[in-house]
Design goal:
The complex is a heterotrimer of chains A (456), B (412) and C (174). Chain A has helices at 15-25, 31-57, 72-96, 102-127, 153-186, 189-199, 206-239, 251-277, 286-317, 320-331, 335-347, 355-358, 361-388, 403-426, 432-445. Chain A is mostly helical and 456 residues long. Chain B has helices spanning 25-49, 52-82, 91-97, 102-109, 111-115, 117-120, 122-125, 131-136, 139-164, 167-173, 184-209, 221-247, 259-288, 291-301, 307-324, 328-332, 334-356, 369-404. In chain B, helix 11 (184-209) crosses helix 12 (221-247), helix 13 packs across helix 15 and helix 15 (307-324) runs antiparallel to helix 17. Chain B starts with 24 loop residues before the first helix and ends in an 8-residue tail after the last helix. With 174 residues, chain C is an alpha+beta fold. In chain C, 51% of the residues lie in helices and 15% in strands. Chain C has helices at residues 14-26, 41-51, 58-83, 96-122, 154-164; strands at 4-11, 32-35, 143-150, 168-173. The chains are: A mainly alpha (456), B mainly alpha (412), C alpha+beta (174). Chains in contact: A-B, A-C, B-C. Chains A and C meet through helix 1, helix 5, helix 7 and helix 15 of A and strand 2, helix 2, helix 3 and helix 4 of C.
């Protein structure tokens, strides 16, 4: 596919076209779709059985051991929370900025947020030796009237993640109401009943829209600082410790940037095949993908900056223990992981400086996969890598995963993709309401030219 | 609409129908010259009869503060280009760029740091023990690299200004209803400028501020510092805009659409972001409780005589903008927006002061006539350098205002 | 009132519908409601001019929710620390710095719940009966303006709607 040939087709898009496209996406699924969902469900089942074994036998079946007691599960947790963040960024932050390209992709990103948080929330529980006691984090007194320690970053995590899950679910559901009402009006059979319940009797009167707009704006206003806080809290799980390689003030904003980076990459990974398979190229154009790619490029530069600052300050501070940790991280036993992460997060995204790569779906897809791998590696290097190099060299032990945690990690992808795929068939994955709102402007503005000059 | 648009200085410059904007520039020039004179006399007197440390530390504070505003404005402008912000014609671009002429002067004033280096950098008299660190913190190396970095920023900024004033850029400013990207030269220079800014100002944060307490280090400090500087530029822009709104003829761009409202939102948003970065840095240091990190904050935030000034900073940089500018009306009221912005600028100045001076004066607060005189001199020089930019801004604001008077307020 | 009828104006453009609302306003007809497939700013502004509602009351609930959440969290964290005086690592018993995180999250949580709850209450949702004059096309691609009026005025109003650009005007017994 050559760059800049894919033109914006908005100039003759009508409201009904928007509806028809969404309708086509939600048409009853074929065998291939159900095979795919079945495959994802199979992965979940495999992961579930490994978890059952882990609960039965204890954490000894994993590769965990002194000094690396936080490893792959916490990596997965941070990875999935990070994936979630771009959804809130695209739906809330860009809404506040009134960025026009968000309309076609935000529902997809928001859905991703909800399912990614759902996935992430499982990992701290999987990580527990006695998962049935996870509710000890809830703010209630135990039998000695002792409350949880609110100074503990793990308690903050509990508050942050549950607030985030609630907010993103409500934000998604509220935005869905008008679109579901539209589906209710044109569906038949059990779907009509299903949508009637979900639409809550929405009819789009002026009174409803007035309150809807205000509530949506305020939710966006709340979601924006929330998204900053959630990943900051996750970063403070590590940064507040005195562990060399983790105790660093830059962690909070740098984790947020990394989260948006990996999340936008995941949006690309999902939406590029989806727009081909579901034939929604008219709604999700190259222009949208290009804008996402720019966000990825920006956040990639931010995390490159953060890696460099950290390395520079290790040199500047000249603290022997920090220097050893970082030497091991760069050149040590698992240094190749660090190399891979720099390659995927800092170097490969630089390709996005080129407009022709940013407008080529194959390039974008490949780069987004690399970014996903790179960001997973980054968390692994930070968590398992820093812990492996304990302060006393005789304690050093590099973590190697066993089959249990590998299978559970793979299952988390199955779980996420299964939920996401089910959503696309039963609920509108593209916001019809917001697209219609923007169509007037797009019809007027998107001439036959692509942003980078005249189309050939 | 673009066919008859004249080149370079915005639409107004060559439009014959309208008289040039009449503002009393000579009064502002006089004020600036008087302030510079006070500054020169005060600096001389301070060196001769006062404490030269006070002179040169204040020099450093003012240099970073005023160069920061001039430079930060350009980054705001580059940010407008990169986010395709076209909500006020050329006006908000010229507003952000109006102070840039202080940059070359700042390069000259940097020589003050070279002259006063023995009074500023404690590690010249008492070199740090670690050999590698001593190499990094050696006066010739540090001053050379910082001077070159500042020179590079000035050069890139100058190129950026030239490109931002070209005809194609001006045409692009005035077409808010397209999805077209800025012209190619802008697309090249704006990211370069922004990336250079982040790197160079991080370097300044560590070299010129943090190194005065050489044991202290914090990885977020550079980022936090250049975000602060960026915010001070937004404040200066908002202050200028709210003044211009009343001084310029009716119908100027600052009375139209939601220009002041948007500036108010920018102050609000980046103020919250500043507080977030501040807290993110504070909580990690609080929690870690490592002496080499905490001493920098304890001395400033919990010990007299610095405590009061230190706590004034979050008030002026966050609490005040956050509480006052939360609603729509205060953002649109020029007097309120202007006051909050001015107090914000003062807050950023105080912040620079408490970052730099306590490293050498841990137990005394040397705030007296020397500081006032040196700052007055810098302020005068800054205003003097800004006048040509402000004149251009006045023209553009009036002509853009005329142009949009027949159109609906630009969507954004 | 017996003899009242509903006039349903169907518009394909929101600006025309907004125009019709303004015309009705000039004729001092304020008893109407509208349908639209998306929150059209023009229509909402026109309606707002007539009803003088000002900004939606949702924001007050949100503010109240946010304050409640922040206070709840403050009481929870500080109160439980005081109740069980446990010195951890030499920190103050009530350490505000880390509690700010909890206070912040609870403020957001309660604010969000306030926004969603008040949106449902103030919009009359969930609702089990249809507002008069609803057509499924109003959820898809048409804008509706429904006026309740006496039979005698209907011709005048219909003319107004058509003048503003209505595609069709349907009459329906109230």
């Amino acid at each position: 596919m050559a760059a800049a040939v894919d033109q914006s087709n908005y100039h003759n898009l009508s409201f009904l076209d928007v509806d028809r496209t969404a309708q086509r996406v939600m048409a009853p699924a074929g065998l291939k779709y159900w095979l795919w969902v079945g495959f994802c469900a199979f992965l979940v089942a495999v992961g579930g059985s490994f978890w059952t074994r882990q609960i039965y036998e204890g954490l000894g079946v994993t590769g965990y051991g002194q000094p690396t007691l936080w490893a792959i599960y916490i990596t997965d947790f941070v990875f999935w929370v990070g994936i979630a963040h771009s959804g809130t960024l695209i739906s809330a932050v860009l809404f506040l900025f009134r960025t026009r390209w968000r309309t076609a992709v935000y529902r997809c990103a928001e859905t991703m947020t909800v399912f990614a948080v759902l996935t992430a929330g499982l990992f701290p529980i999987v990580h527990l030796g006695r998962p049935w006691f996870f509710y000890w984090l809830c703010p209630y007194p135990n039998e000695r009237y002792l409350q949880p320690d609110f100074r503990s970053p793990l308690t903050w995590d509990f508050f942050a993640i549950s607030t985030y899950l609630t907010t993103s679910t409500l934000f998604l559901s509220m935005g869905l109401i008008p679109d579901i009402a539209n589906q209710r009006d044109i569906s038949i059979g059990w779907r009509k009943k299903f949508y009637s319940v979900l639409a809550c009797g929405w009819q789009g009167t002026d009174r409803q829209w007035r309150n809807f707009s205000m509530a949506y704006l305020l939710l966006a206003g709340f979601a924006t600082p929330l998204v900053l806080s959630v990943h900051s809290v996750v970063s403070w799980d590590f940064a507040t410790m005195q562990t060399p390689g983790m105790h660093s003030t830059i962690f909070a904003p740098y984790f947020v940037a990394g989260a948006i980076f990996s999340g936008c990459a995941m949006v690309l990974t999902l939406i590029i095949p989806m727009r081909k398979m579901l034939h929604i190229e008219d709604l999700v154009t190259i222009w949208h993908l290009d804008s996402l790619a720019k966000v990825i490029l920006l956040t990639s530069l931010v995390i490159t900056y953060s890696y460099s600052t950290e390395a520079f300050l290790v040199y500047y501070a000249q603290d022997p223990i920090e220097m050893t940790t970082f030497y091991q991280r760069f050149f040590g036993h698992q240094g190749y992981l660090f190399g891979g992460m720099v390659l995927c997060n800092c170097l490969i995204p630089l390709l996005l400086f080129s407009p022709s790569i940013r407008t080529n779906t194959i390039w974008l897809f490949v780069i987004s996969i690399f970014v996903n791998i790179g960001m997973w590696l980054e968390r692994f290097v930070l968590i398992a890598g820093s812990l492996s190099v304990a302060t006393i060299p005789s304690q050093w032990k590099f973590y190697v995963p066993k089959v249990t945690e590998v299978m559970i990690t793979i299952a988390s992808f199955g779980w996420f993709l299964m939920n996401f795929s089910l959503f696309t068939k039963f609920l509108p994955i593209v916001s019809m309401t917001e697209l219609k709102e923007g169509v007037g402007w797009l019809r007027k503005s998107a001439r036959n030219t692509y942003p980078y000059g005249k189309a050939s | 609409m673009s066919a008859n648009r004249p080149a370079s200085l915005g639409a107004a410059a060559a439009r014959p129908i309208r008289q040039p904007v009449q503002l009393n520039w000579s009064r502002l020039t006089t004020i600036a010259v008087v302030l510079v004179a006070i500054g020169i006399v005060g600096t001389g007197a301070g060196i001769a009869v006062g404490d030269p440390r006070q002179v040169w530390l204040t020099w450093l504070v003012d240099l970073l503060f005023f160069v920061g505003i001039a430079q930060g404005g350009l980054i705001v402008s580059a940010g407008f280009y990169l986010t395709q912000g076209r909500w006020a014609g050329s006006t908000h671009y010229r507003l952000a760029e109006s102070f840039w002429r202080f940059l070359p002067l700042g390069l000259v004033l940097f020589l003050g740091i070279v002259i006063g280096r023995n009074y500023i950098f404690p590690w010249i008299a008492h070199p740090v023990a670690n050999k590698v660190k001593a190499q990094w913190l050696s006066a010739p190396f540090l001053l050379t690299r910082d001077f070159l970095a500042l020179a590079w920023m000035t050069f890139v900024s100058w190129r950026f200004i030239l490109i931002s004033n070209t005809e194609e850029a001006v045409i692009w400013h005035h077409e808010p209803d397209t999805i077209e990207m800025p012209p190619v030269p802008v697309r090249r220079i704006a990211p370069l400028l922004a990336i250079s800014y982040a790197i160079v100002w991080t370097l300044f944060a560590y070299d010129l501020i943090s190194s005065l307490s050489p044991q202290w280090h914090s990885t977020l400090f550079g980022w936090w510092y250049f975000a602060t500087v960026f915010w001070s530029a937004i404040c200066t822009m908002s202050f200028t805009a709210s003044r211009m709104r009343t001084l310029l003829p009716a119908g100027n761009m600052f009375t139209r659409g939601k220009v002041l409202h948007d500036l108010g939102k920018m102050i609000f948003a980046f103020s919250v972001f500043w507080m977030y970065l501040t807290f993110a840095q504070y909580i990690v240091i609080w929690y870690g409780d490592i002496p080499t990190e905490t001493f920098f904050i304890i001395g400033r935030a919990w010990h007299h005589p610095w405590m009061l000034l230190t706590w004034l900073c979050p008030v002026l940089l966050w609490a005040l903008p956050f509480s006052v500018l939360m609603g729509v009306k205060p953002k649109k009221t020029p007097a309120i927006l202007g006051s909050v912005a001015l107090l914000g600028m003062i807050g950023v100045w105080i912040l620079h002061y408490i970052l730099i001076v306590p490293s050498l004066f841990p137990d005394t607060l040397p705030l007296g006539w020397i500081e006032l005189c040196v700052t007055a001199g810098f302020l005068g020089a800054f205003i003097f350098c800004a006048i040509p930019g402000l004149r251009q801004l006045a023209e553009v604001a009036v002509s853009d205002g005329l142009e949009t008077s027949h159109e609906a307020p630009a969507p954004h | 009132m017996s003899g009242d009828i509903e006039l349903i104006g169907v518009f394909s453009d929101d600006a025309q519908c907004a125009h019709a609302i303004e015309k009705l306003h000039h004729a001092s007809i304020v008893e109407f409601h509208t349908f639209s497939p998306f929150p059209s700013e023009k229509m909402l502004e026109a309606v707002d001019e007539v009803r003088e509602w000002g900004r939606s009351p949702v924001r007050k609930f949100v503010l109240a929710g946010g304050i409640t959440g922040a206070i709840t969290a403050l009481v929870l964290t500080v109160g439980t620390s005081w109740e069980w005086n446990l010195n951890t690592g030499g920190r103050p018993i009530a350490s505000i710095t880390p509690y700010i995180v909890i206070i912040f999250e609870m403020m957001i949580l309660f604010g969000v719940l306030g926004a969603v709850t008040s949106f449902f209450i103030k919009s009359g949702l969930p609702s089990f009966e249809s507002a008069t004059g609803y057509r499924t096309r109003f959820g898809a691609d048409r804008f509706g303006l429904v006026v309740r009026t006496a039979e005698s005025d209907s011709a005048k109003i219909e003319a107004m709607m058509r003048e503003a650009g209505a595609e069709e005007v349907v009459r329906e017994a109230a």
